[in-house]
Amino acid sequence: MAFVMVYAMICYNIALNVGGMQNFVFLAAFKEMLIMWPIAIALELIFVGRLAQKLAFRFVTPGKDPAIMIILAISSMSVCLMCPLMSFAATLLFKNAGKEIVAVWLQTTAMNFPMALCWQIFFAGPLVRNVFGFFVKKLTK
């Protein structure tokens, strides 16, 4: 999941920086992936994963609420936590914000959040769950 989310968000941010989507963006994103993907994995494993579940379970109850509601709650909380953190990392590493670091970070987060939430809920989440589910079914047969 981290790979799909980080790659898409890097492509999105490069496209924003160059004024729109262009073919070179897809390859250029892999340079930043080498830095941002490990950061995302570390944040998810150390901090975000457990906290997102705790926050989500304030709204939904496993075993009581439908599975899709639990999935959506955890996914939404993950984006709420990861987007500002990853936007901060990107601001530090790629934006050359200087003394405007807070303003640039807030703007980066505000620009990234709608895309990250929609990408997670409608595309990356379903794609990764379906691919993972396909392989789990194949391996358990």
Please provide the ordered H/E string of secondary-structure elements: HHHH
Query: Count of DSSP helices?
Result: 4
**Integer average pLDDT:** 97
Proportion of beta-strand residues: under 5%
Shape: globular
Uncertain runs are none
Number of strands: 0
Distance between the termini: 24 Å
Give an overview in words.
The chain is an all-alpha fold. It contains four helices and no strands. α1 packs across α2 (24-56) and α2 (24-56) packs across α3 (67-94). The chain is globular and about 50 Å long. The mean pLDDT is 97.
Itemize the secondary structure elements and their pairings.
Blueprint: H1 2-18, H2 24-56, H3 67-94, H4 101-140
Helix pairs in contact: 1-2, 1-4, 2-3, 3-4
Structural features:
mainly alpha; 141 residues
Question: What does this entry show, briefly?
Answer:
The protein has 141 residues and is mostly helical. The chain has helices at 2-18, 24-56, 67-94, 101-140.
